[in-house]
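User: Predict the structure for this protein chain, please.
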Amino acid sequence: MKIVLNKKLFYFLVIILVNIFASNINYETKNVYQSNAETGIYEGENQFFYFKYYLDIFPLKYTHLLNKNDLSKEAAKKKLEEVENLVMEESHQIRFGGFNSIYLFYPDALLFGKIINPSIKTFNIIFFNFSLILLFFSFCYTNKSTQGFVLCILLSSNPFQIFELYHNDNVFSLVISINIFLASMFIFFSSKLKETKNNVYLFVYIIISVFLIIFFYYVRDNLILFILPVFLSIFFFKTKMIIKIFGIIFFIISTIFINFEISNSIKNNFNNTIDLLANQNGKYLDVPYSLHETYFPIYSGLNEFKSDLDIGFWSDEAADQLLKNKYNIDISVVMSKKSKNGYNIHPVGEIPYYDNYFKDEIINIVLENKILFFKILIDRLSTSLNNLTPPSINLLLKNISLDYNLVNKFLLIIYFFLIIHIIKNKDFENLYLFILGSTYFIYCLIFPATLGISYYILSHIFLFNLFLKKIFDYNE
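Assistant: Here is the predicted structure, written as structure tokens:
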């Protein structure tokens, strides 16, 4: 099979590009489809890009304002001599931020010269639209150009994605963009293997997918969830079981190796910057450079549906009160301290086994009230299903959405029967797209679904597209 850019494909591509442009000009700043559960990029993270861009030094920030006279490698070298004005962090934006986020500022710097105050929007827009076009051509390669065209229109009209791309200067659009990119990789490489019987395509698919996921894991750690559907996708390739087993082994080795290389690179960056400042008696980072909480946010979200739990909801203060009352740990005292070099102390890096206090508390709550635990899971699943982004389409200056409660409930019933149809007919391509698009249902079961994280889910869009295909029967 090969792609021939005939008149039909050309018109499809033009309409997709026009739809992308329409998305750019008709987004609503008061969009209700927003994620309120996460911080993402911290304010001021882009201030660490200056030295990364000119001298490949990270993390390092010049504490005074920079101007256009500082936009050169020579000027950056001179700033390094002002060691009293150099810091490796302010507040906690680097320790809690994704270390690879710094690379996402490059498109804005290279295309628009924004080196002092770069934005992540440029990367988000390019990556999403690149993934979208890849998806379209992947469908074209399998002689399903109409299905791919309709799907791309639906995806580029997604109200949550439009808001995150064109209004919110953050990383929340990455979930959908990565989902689309992985879908295009699977469709293309699985079709290529089926056509040529060349198993190399499976291993190329694995290495591209794993590298993408691990790279973005160090931008936003919840993106590691995509490792699960990629692992499952190996079984959907039409090849011998022994090849699939080798694929699984290669997948595991690739994941470990790529993660080691990227994490080691980050560690070396920190050590080099620490050495640079330490050699000049500067303010090197003398606190743990990586802070991770797992159980604290899970605990903070347990009272999402106003259960009988005597705790707040999504509140640092409620969690701090638990530590003070039960373990005699005063977080305000810890947070008021500074390290020797003047960096903020954070309880995650200061209090031994900090996160385990919340882990123990979660276990105690589950053991004391198992019914409550299952009720939370059921409520979160129900909330997620009833708070999906509606199927939408851009009509130049207006975004039209099927944002009607009754319509969406009816569509959920249609989706259920479509899933049965897919499984019964062994339609592995659409089955995998459904699994891939459903990845963030897992996230919604762990963290509060009422805070907008269900908008990351795409499975219903894939199914709605398939539903349209069944109605209009646009077989190629």
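The radius of gyration is 24 Å.
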